C-alpha cells in the first residue's frame, strides 16, 4: 500500500501586532483547518489552535506544558528582553507553572475565588456599580450626552474589585491599568516593553513591601504571610508574578467582556428585548458574549513537550502555541452554521472555551461572571435607552492580538 501524501503545509498567518477585529481572519483560517502556523512579532514561528474541539483537547493534553523551559526559541536565546510577549512566557507564577508547582501556587489564591467567597462580594459589587452609574450619568451630562462607557463603567468596576480583594490602594489603580495595558499589548517597542515591565514589577514590589509593614485582611497580606512562613510555598518572584497575574487578568478580561456585551446588545436590540421581556437572562448575555466575542482572542503560550499531531497538523516540540479563543467561539463545527450570530436563545449543548479549559481554567471565572451579570442588569435598568454614540464600524479596536475589544465605547445613556 502506498503511503498517503503528506498534507501541503499551510502558509503561516502573520499576526498583526496592532490588533484589529479577529473574526474575518478567524473565519478564513478555520475554513482551512483547526490549526494554523503563525508568525509572531520578531519573526518567531508559532502555531495557533483555532477549532473548538482541537483547542479543548489541546488545553488538557498531558504532553502540553506552560513552563518557559519548554519554549525552544527562548531556551536558544532567540527571545530578546524587549519582545512584547515575553512577560506571558516568563513571569513567575501560575500562568507559567505546571504540575505540582501549578497546584501549589493555585491553592494559595483559590480560596478567594470560590463560588461562596464570590457570592459574599455581591453586595459590594452592587454598591460599586450603583456609584459608577451615577458617574456615567454625570460624564454624559458634561459631555453633551455622550460618555465613554469603557472608561467610566467597564474599567473601574473589575479593577476596583480586584484591587480591593488584594488590598491595593485606589491611588495606584490608574497606573496599574496603564501598565497592564502595555504589558498585554503586542504593538509596543522593545524599549516600551522593557520599561513597562520594570515599572510594573517595581510598583508591585513597593505595594507588597507596604503591605508587609502593615498587613490587612486581604489576599496580598495572605500571600506575604505564606512567603514569610515557608519560602517553599511562595518565593518573592512568585509573589510579584502572582500579584501581576491577578491584577492584569482580574480586570482586563472582565473589562473586555463588559465592553463587548454592551456593544452586542446595542447592535442587537431584538436580543436586548428578550432579556427585558424575561425570555432570556443577563447570565445568558454573559455566556453568549463570551462565546460570540471572546474577551481574549489569541492567548499565549503553551508548548508541546514532544512532537504532537493536532487535527492532522504536526506541532513540533517546543513550539509556542496560541489558544485561539475568539475563533473557537465561532467554530461552525461546534456551534452550528449560525455560529457568527449573536443569539441568546441558542440551545447548543457545546460550552464555549473562552475562560479556558483543563488545569489552567480561569480561576476568576465566578467573579467575572458575577461582576458582568450585575453590571449589565444595573446598566440597562438605569438606562434602558442606552445606545452607541457612533457607528460600530468607527469604534477603534484594541491594541494587540491578545485582547479582543475596542479601546473606547462612546454611548448615549439617555434618560
UniProtKB/TrEMBL annotation:
UniProt-listed Gene3D superfamilies: Cytochrome P450 (1.10.630.10)
Coiled coil: none
Biased composition (Pro residues): 1-10
Organism domain of life: Bacteria
Region Disordered, annotated ranges: 1-21
InterPro entries registered for this protein in UniProt: Cyt_P450, Cyt_P450_B, Cyt_P450_sf
UniProt similarity note: Belongs to the cytochrome P450 family.
Protein name listed in UniProt: Cytochrome P450
UniProt source species: Streptomyces flavochromogenes
High-level lineage: Bacteria, Bacillati, Actinomycetota, Actinomycetes, Kitasatosporales
